[in-house]
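Dock nicotinamide-adenine-dinucleotide; give full complex structure.
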Amino acid sequence: MAVVAPAPAVSAFLEALPKRLLIGGEWKDAASGRTFDTINPATGERLATVAEAGPEDVDAAVTAARKAYDGPWRKLRPSERARLLWRLADAVNAHEEELAQLETLDNGKPVRESKIDIRGVAEHFRYHAGWCSKLQGTTIPVSLPGTYLNYTVREPVGVVGAIVPWNFPLLIATWKLAPALACGNTVVLKPAHETPLTALRLGELAIEVGFPPGVLNVIPGLGSTAGAALAAHPGVDKVAFTGSTEVGREIIRASAGNLKRVSLELGGKSPNIVFADADLPAAVKGAFNAIFFNQGQMCSAGSRLFVARSVYEEFLNQLSEQAGKIRQGPGLDPETQMGPLISAVQLKRVQGFIDTGRREGAVLRAGGERATGDLARGFFIQPTVFADAKDDMTVVRDEIFGPVVVAMPFEELDEVIARANATAYGLAAGVWTRDLKTAHRVAAGIRAGTLWVNCYNLIDPASPWGGYKESGYGRDMGDAALHEYTEIKNVLINLG
Ligand code: NAD
């Protein structure tokens, strides 16, 4: 295992810890004085100590966000908001190496993948910067007797609470921040307690590029305290949440007090369907990335793999062989293809699912064990392929959120569509075929927010992202996101 030292800027950032909470443009200790440790998942060792926000800090951050919303932020012209978002995107690009290393140390993912995330962050800010000056209303004809001018305007919702997970820490935070800020809202961001570092660094960059104090507040803390307080706070107008379906339900309950707007990007158990006429090497590569990218810790992971029976054995042989060759290691090592899981808790959870899969009779074709040697210190699990799973097995029904794919053969199109839809989730799906008719029939038949044809996990800032069914509601990205962060006001003027 190569030991790779972080860049000097990363070490300097870590040494300046314990980082404080960003509230109203100032760095503050938690009101309680409490801190928590964030762990390097590659080693299981403490990486940094971070101030832990509690309800009092949430309250202070919401108050600061409201003050900024009512004050300087509302007065900025759209083009000035856009310029700030562009400047933030430029700053993110300029600090790509540093942010990527921080993300890798905190989350575990290979630094190559962290760089993809960080470039994505900049692109999402730029995409939404373009919308600042294009948030138009409509002029509506009136059929009432008399003469009127009737129009709509789109106004920001107000103060947004963004609660995000640890799997793409800065990228998913940006899916909320970019449209929220573009639409003129202010934000209180609560990163996952496992991965608070890049959000804190982004807070520093936002101040450096000139965002007014209180427009972006960053308050790391636990979900059960800081997250719950933010979701329930009467001063928050909207909660934008990405995380588990279970916590999504709690967010809805917490939001009921002031009927705040809620958007939820939740779990998934996405089907990836390979037809016999597919370009098989491309489909094997696609299925591999669909489940093993980011250690399988993806809401959209192609975790249920349906393969046409005539190519099933050949496909599984190739996939299992490639899974067995993945090089695992610490994310900072440039040779690493797969990092550790996020935490000891997640490792135990994934191991539990693997044990259950074996017990229920799925056939293990690759992986299934913790990594050994030097890697045993960290939270590494081998990329795992189960074959001959049955639709009613736990490993087929439940979201595992790890590098575990369950493969099943299928016979025909209508059957596989029905089986693909037999899930509580509806986030994403993939289909591999050379036949246009097959592709379109699957695209029309699958109940999910995203359908990839001959590709997987490609996410563009202009495309809407979100789920059907228990994968949540609302959309991140694209123009669809603008609806989540604006209210529509109708103005009817009597000209008679
Ligand atoms: P999680 O639900 O445990 O936590 C997500 C966030 O919610 C964290 O910031 C956490 O601190 C906070 N939280 C926890 N309990 C809370 C509460 N009671 N009130 C308010 N906030 C609370 O999820 P996780 O383990 O961090 O992430 C994994 C889950 O996220 C998976 O289910 C995955 O599918 C889902 N996810 C979905 C998407 C998507 O776009 N649909 C993307 C990434 C992850």
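Observed: The mean pLDDT is 96.
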